[in-house]
Amino acid sequence: MRTKGWATLALSNGSMIRGRCENGLHAGDEAMLALRPERAHIPGAEGTQPTEHDNVVRARVDELVYCGDHHRVHLTLGSRDSIVVKVPNTQRHALPTPGSEIDVAWRHDDCKILAMSARSSAPAIHVSTPPSPSIITTAPAGAN
User: One Pfam match, by short name (predicted)?
Assistant: First the structure.
């Protein structure tokens, strides 16, 4: 449900994601999550810890891709939702092992929940590929 520009998205693994949303989203609508890879982080591995303003979900590491100054960590959330995290290539960042289960986090206001019908007009930001439909749920009272 849309509440003052915010919505809660239920992923296939039962995780609840809080994020900004566009007009026209309603409880029960299919939607997708848009998140830039550099906005997500792996708590602990990057010397960071999640805050109360972070979405934190459990994910399986599918692949690590070396890209020179960073690695792209491809993750699966639940059975079908996928996400990519950009991790700087420095000695202080421990990389997860493919096949391992890790937490991934990002700030509520760093992601956007988009209607599935808006896929073709979505802004030029990274969207999980392939887009996985999820369901908009009612936001908790007092949440922003």
Answer: TOBE_2
Q: Which amino acid is at 53?
A: H
Residue 143 in domain: no
Please tell me the distance from the alpha carbon of residue 65 to that of residue 71, in angstroms, as a whole number: 5
> Which distant-in-sequence residues (6+ apart) come within 8 Å of 65 by Cβ?
71, 72, 73, 74
Q: Is residue 54 part of a domain?
A: yes
Structurally, how many domains does the chain consist of? 1
pTM of the prediction? 0.71
**Are the CB atoms for 12 and 80 separated by under 8 Å?**
yes
Phi, psi of 119 (to 5 degrees): -50, -45
**More confident call, 129 vs 88:** 88
